[in-house]
Write a structure and sequence with these properties.
By secondary structure, this protein is an alpha+beta fold. 56% of the residues lie in helices and 8% in strands. Strands 3-9-8-7-6 form a five-stranded mixed sheet, sandwiched between helices. It has a two-stranded antiparallel ribbon with strand order 1-2. It is globular and about 95 Å long. The termini are far apart.
């Protein structure tokens, strides 16, 4: 038997080290570790109690001396203290001859003191040894999955946080830049604001005036996307379809699916939207179920019950290299937002099955495009529940499902997985409470708009839309050439009326092709060619406050300051 609990833990740490080194070829060990880990502290406690109180007889002082572990220094320190106390208590020779020490009505023997202090030292030795062993274990895990870039980012962030708080010159300089950026953002973002009301009007405004005010503003704001000059944002926008959604919303503007007894049709339509979406993505698995959420972000959050990227696409080998007992789910895209690339879902599915973890496929953009592209015989990799390792998917009805903003569908391979997202509380004084997602009350009208959009378009309608969008995407891609200063191109295209997305790592601009883009593909190519020619002939400096200047400046900055400047942007959007 090992002589100390510490030695047992050290042996366990060595074993874990061996396991961590070989775990790439032993996924079952990872599953075992993941299963046992929540009970690790309890197991360690039981092992220690057994070794100290059951597995060995009550030791005397000599036996305790022989059982000291790695931290002998603490044992010697306590022993020296005991000897010193013995000498002090003994005093003269007459006191030394007595083995009893009296304090008022209490007494104890030196032999008792000499027994319990070493025992306390031994237990302290065990405690400190266990703490050390656990830290060694975490260090081994960290080193095994060490990422120099991640370490560098954390170091820079910590250094920036410290400097901003403790070095006056740095704090002053940063606050100056922050104020400059805030002023620039306000000038650009607040330019069109009129009649700002910061406080509640004393008397209610006339309803006709409210509508007239909003109507005049909306007509101007809608003009850009109606002309097809926007990347994404509005994915459909056909007049008749929009009128349909507006009428449906008006019928159910006050509905709430939290009360199915009041609006049973909302509950029925929600179930039908989920079923129709599952039918497109289930890969033949009839057990696939789902729920409706407020958007893609909530759908992804719902799919997490409690990789590292190579270029633009997840590398399954890299993902497998980073698999350990901490991993509960792999996240992949079909396609990703920035570059529209579909991750290798089939290979990632194999990794997920091998290590017995979940695989979520974010198809918020592709959920209502890829299934119909597949029907149109486009050459596509497997991306849905057809891959056995896929456990959940998300698809936004408010993107290429052409529904009103605020709806998405999250799908699960079976009911057991879906139940992990529910919130149920049986002890509320207001009654029994249960919701399928994070939100309690939800907009029933949005659910009805999603249903109306899907059934009004139908399979053939979706196929026609996807064919147009895919053809336009190919046409534009063939017409785009290499650009030197991409952010200045985005600025110039903005002046030409286009609203494009500026991306980074690498520097790029993004056009999400929608139905409105289809009729303006030639205009886009023509405008882009003119902008590029103009920049090559007349290179201009980036104006302060422009997106080109902001992206250019932040591109050379570490993450810490950039994160703080992003907070300024959010502050401005929430201010008036």
């Amino acid at each position: 038997m090992l002589t100390t609990a510490y030695e047992l833990v050290v042996a366990g740490t060595i074993l874990v080290f061996i396991v961590s080194v070989s775990m790439k070829s032993s996924p079952h060990l990872l599953k075992t570790i993941r299963t046992v880990r929540p009970y690790a502290k309890f197991i360690i406690l039981l092992a220690w109690l057994y070794i100290r109180f059951i597995g060995s007889s009550a030791p005397g002082p000599d036996a305790l001396d022989n059982e000291m572990g790695f931290l002998d220094l603490f044992q010697k320190l306590f022993q020296s203290t005991a000897d010193h106390m013995s000498t002090c208590f003994a005093g003269d020779s007459s006191a030394s001859s007595s083995s009893n020490i009296h304090f008022g009505n209490s007494s104890f023997t030196l032999s008792s003191l000499q027994l319990h202090i070493p025992r306390l030292a031994l237990y302290t030795n065990d405690f400190l040894g266990i703490i050390l062993a656990l830290n060694v274990f975490h260090l081994v895990q960290y080193l095994h999955h060490f990422s120099w870039q991640e370490f560098k980012d954390r170091l820079i962030q910590s250094s920036f946080d410290f400097a901003k708080t403790n070095i006056p010159a740095v704090e002053k300089g940063f606050l100056k830049e922050e104020a400059k950026m805030e002023m620039s953002l306000k000038e650009s973002m607040w330019e069109g604001r009129r009649d700002v009301m910061k406080i509640l009007p004393k008397d209610g405004l006339d309803m006709e005036k409210v509508l007239m005010n909003l109507k005049s503003v909306a007509e101007g704001e809608n003009k850009k996307w109606e002309e097809g000059l926007v990347s994404g944002a509005v994915y459909g926008g056909e007049k008749k379809h929009t009128e349909l959604l507006n009428q449906v919303y008006g019928m159910y503007s006050l509905s709430n699916p939290l009360h199915p007894d009041l609006w049973p049709k909302v509950n029925q339509c929600e179930a039908e939207v989920i079923s129709m979406t599952a039918g497109l993505l289930n890969g033949g698995d009839e057990d696939v179920v789902g729920a409706m959420t407020s958007g893609g972000t909530e759908s992804i959050i719902m799919a997490v019950p409690c990789g590292e990227s190579n270029g633009y696409q997840l590398d399954p080998k890299q993902v497998e290299r980073f698999m350990n007992s901490n991993v509960i789910m792999i996240y992949a895209s079909a396609p990703s937002y920035p570059q529209g690339v579909i991750d290798p879902i089939e290979e990632l599915s194999t990794v997920a099955k091998k290590f017995d973890v979940g695989l979520h496929v974010d198809a918020c953009l592709g959920g209502f495009v890829l299934p119909f592209a597949r029907m149109l015989d486009y050459d596509l990799p497997k991306f849905d529940f057809e891959c056995p390792g896929v456990t959940s998917m998300s698809a936004d009805t408010h993107k290429y499902g052409y529904a009103s903003k605020g709806t998405s569908v999250v799908l699960y391979r079976n009911k057991e997985l879906r139940r992990a997202q529910y919130f149920n509380y049986s002890k509320w004084t207001g009654g029994l409470y249960g919701t399928p997602t994070i939100a309690g009350s939800r907009a029933g009208a949005l659910i009805m708009c999603a249903w109306a959009s899907l059934v009004a378009i139908g399979e053939e309608g979706f196929k026609a839309r996807v064919k147009s969008i895919m053809g336009t995407t190919k046409y534009i891609a063939e017409g785009v050439s290499q650009i030197k200063d991409i952010y200045q191109v985005a600025e110039k295209m903005g002046k030409a009326g286009w609203s494009l997305n500026s991306l980074q790592n690498p520097a790029s601009i993004h056009l999400c092709v929608t139905l409105k883009t289809v009729d303006h593909k030639d205009d886009f190519i023509t405008n882009l060619e003119n902008v590029v020619k103009d920049l090559l002939l007349n290179p201009t400096e980036k104006k302060e406050g422009s997106s080109a200047a902001i992206y250019g400046a932040t591109g050379a900055m570490p993450a810490g300051p950039v994160n703080e400047l992003l907070k300024v942007y959010t502050d401005v959007t929430l201010s008036c």
